[in-house]
């Protein structure tokens, strides 16, 4: 995971840091970090991060938030909550998601550390170029299966 962080021009984190130490480490390693807090993040993390981060990267209007609600109706709610956004990155479920609605791309990279009901740990990489969202790749890492 750290190799992917080192290779990225921008790292996006959609909350549930759980420790300030992880935020500190990612801020030190990432060339640029765009991040928000999640429901499992305490006051210290919430003081340092927004509920929703908004940036424009290479002409793509990006919003990063933790919670988007239930799957049913997600695209409709996202369009209403994030007008003038091209790409919405969200977290909470820790389950990968990739959909498009009304010109808005919605991505949840899953989680490289807490796979929940998924068979592998996941994260995504993508390219933003001159206002376009390029190929999105979902990466998998097998869970640690060491005994004890």
From TrEMBL:
Residues 6-130 form the Calcineurin-like phosphoesterase domain. Keywords: Metal-binding. Its EC number is 3.1.4.-. The keyword Metal-binding applies. Pfam families: Metallophos_2. Its cofactor is a divalent metal cation. It is an enzyme of class 3 (hydrolase). Belongs to the metallophosphoesterase superfamily. YfcE family. This is Phosphoesterase. It comes from Pseudonocardia kongjuensis.
């Amino acid at each position: 995971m750290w190799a992917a962080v080192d290779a990225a021009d921008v790292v996006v984190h959609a909350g549930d840091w759980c420790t300030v130490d992880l935020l500190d480490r990612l801020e030190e390693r990432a060339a640029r970090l765009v991040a928000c807090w999640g429901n499992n993040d305490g006051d210290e993390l919430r003081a340092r991060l927004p509920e929703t981060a908004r940036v424009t990267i290479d002409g793509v209007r990006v919003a990063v938030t933790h919670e988007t609600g239930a799957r049913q109706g997600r695209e409709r709610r996202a369009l209403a909550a994030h007008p003038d956004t091209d790409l919405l990155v969200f977290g909470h479920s820790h389950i990968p998601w990739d959909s498009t609605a009304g010109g808005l791309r919605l991505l949840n990279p899953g989680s490289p550390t807490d796979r929940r009901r998924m068979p592998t740990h996941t994260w995504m990489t993508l390219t933003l170029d001159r206002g376009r969202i390029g190929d999105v790749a979902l990466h998998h890492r097998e869970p640690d299966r060491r005994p004890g």
